[in-house]
Amino acid sequence: MPIVIPKDIPAYDTLEKENIFIMSSLRADTQDIRPIEIVIVNLMPTKIITETQLMRLLSNSPLQVNITLLNTATYSSKNTEQTYLDKFYKTFDEIKDKRYDGMIITGAPVENIDFEEVLYWEELKQIMDFADKNVTSTIYICWGAQAALYHYYGIPKYMLDDKLFGVYKHKRCVEFSPLLKGLDDYFYIPHSRHSGVDSNLIYDCKHLEPLAESDETGIAIFKSVDDKKIFITGHLEYDKNTLKQEYERDLAKGLSIHEPDNYFSKTNEVIVRWRSTANIVFSNWLNYYVYQVTPFEIDR
């Protein structure tokens, strides 16, 4: 079954060319089916790129998925036209009286700032509290994961000496987990961040369950014991060339940056090692942590 998005949003044409199963909102209205309602809180400056990446992964499911895009009201993106945001995005005030089956909170380029100094921190706390009561399960990505750890459990982030930048091999922390079902014992995840979280604090927290880790990244996938919160410290949603574009951007700015680890071949071609992992994890989340447990009557 498809994801349901407006036909005039840029992601529609992109995904249609990739033969992704999508459906316009008009056609979806004629389907006699209870779709899954997912809200994406997009904190990335590259809004169109990020929303397309996540929609691509959410489409890899037998479910019909309605997408709501959410933008912060307390901070206006400098990289996306306001007319675009007004057309395709909602604010928290517009959705705060609704309930959703799933939510995704993305990363954000604010790692060098204390959480309390982020301009939209108070609004984000409201959104996270809303998710805890009105959303069946939420995925927190990269900085979003760090923000949720700090808000819910008081676990702080710390700055890395060097940027964690590349594609890294991870291993399971548990033999059986619905989220990792179908994955091999070792798999790859892209990372791009200046901050991290002490893995020992995650292991010591009785509310959290580690699922996957690596020597370079620490614990990269973990969840709350009640399955309502999924944390991914990397970027499974990244496209083939996302790390390359970030690398070239930083070089152009004169920033100190190394080539992404385990990413380029000897002939300088990009090697994609994480696509199957991304599709499996998001498909498992939709099935086991959302669809199988969310109430048919969503207002319940």
Give me some keywords for this one.
Rossmann fold, twelve-stranded mixed sheet, 300 residues, alpha/beta
Overview of this protein structure:
The chain has a single domain (3-159, 195-238, 275-291), classed as Class I glutamine amidotransferase (GATase) domain (Rossmann fold). It has 300 residues and is of the alpha/beta class. The chain is 31% helix and 26% strand. It contains 10 helices and 12 strands. The longest helix has 17 residues, at 275-291.
Query: Helix content range of the residues, please?
Result: 25-40%
Judging from the principal axes of the Cα atoms, what is the shape? Answer: globular
State which percent range the strand residues make up: 25-35%
Query: Helix and strand succession?
Result: EHEHEHEHEHEHEHEEHEEEHH
Note poorly predicted spans.
none
At a glance:
The chain is α/β, with parallel strands linked by helices. 31% of the residues lie in helices and 26% in strands. The mean pLDDT is 91.
